[in-house]
Specification:
Number of domains: 3
Strand order of the largest sheet: 1-2
Order of helices and strands: HHEEHHHHHHHHH
Oligomer: single chain
Number of helices: 11
Strand content: under 5%
Structural class: mainly alpha
Shape: globular
Distance between the termini: 54 Å
Number of strands: 2
Length: 244
């Protein structure tokens, strides 16, 4: 691969132009092209005003570790919940640690409702004590150590009380489509996948806005224009919500 060299990206207006640009840079492998494309897309939306302070809450998948990244507590605790203890002592240690985690989780939720700067240090100290303790189970100890390395992502809520502590909301949004995919076996082409994902996104967005998806489809098919564009509705409601 040849060394990267700056070029007039603004001249790349089509997919073909972008692919040729990557090829000229020696970026020819599909995986490398995907990474470069994702990076360019992120840079593009940032240049158009997307806040760098946007928080992405995820289950820990590496592709979501961008901007300000937070981890889902439900997925984190699940790593401990699914461990199989070998004896009663390990089982007791596992249950004790789980109780400690859920107690801390409840207190983080309370902090969300009424943020208090004086509570930050004690909550951090409790996190430290829970995830650095030694138990009778070597496997549990390794899992705690692994989670301890993600302290900043699990405790981002202390700096940003507005973010959720879990990803249940987004997972609930796609649960119906996941079930359909398991039953139907998925789509037969990339075009079909894009079509499915587009309609799933529109349906979920309409539901969150309190708009009938059936009415929305009829409005767009018949081109009556009764329902405004969804982005306009979102911006309008976001602006209204920002007013004290």
């Amino acid at each position: 691969m040849r060394p990267w060299r700056a070029s007039p990206i603004c001249a790349l207006t089509t997919t073909q132009d972008w692919e040729k640009h990557l090829s000229d840079l020696g970026i020819t492998q599909e995986r490398h092209q995907r990474i470069a494309t994702e990076g360019a897309l992120l840079a593009g939306v940032l240049a158009k005003g997307l806040s760098r302070e946007l928080v992405i809450v995820s289950d820990g998948a590496g592709q979501f570790a961008i901007l300000l990244h937070a981890l889902c507590w439900v997925h984190a605790e699940r790593l401990i919940h699914k461990l199989i203890p070998l004896n009663e002592r390990q089982r007791a240690d596992q249950q004790r640690v789980r109780d400690q985690i859920w107690t801390l989780y409840a207190d983080l939720k309370a902090y969300q409702r009424a943020p208090d700067p004086a509570a930050i240090a004690p909550l951090r100290a409790r996190f430290e004590a829970i995830f650095t303790q030694k138990t009778s189970s070597a496997t549990l100890n390794r899992t705690l150590k692994r989670l301890h390395r993600h302290q900043s992502e699990l405790l981002l809520v202390l700096l940003r009380p507005d973010i959720p502590l879990h990803t249940n909301g987004s997972e609930n949004d796609i649960r119906g489509d996941v079930k359909w995919r398991k039953i139907g076996g998925g789509t037969r082409s990339t075009l079909g996948q894009r079509c499915r994902d587009t309609f799933a996104s529109l349906k979920t967005t309409c539901r969150k806005l309190g708009i009938s998806f059936w009415d929305y489809l009829n409005d767009r098919i018949e081109q009556t224009g009764t329902i405004p564009p969804l982005p306009d509705i979102i911006r309008e409601r976001a602006a209204a919500a920002a007013v004290p």
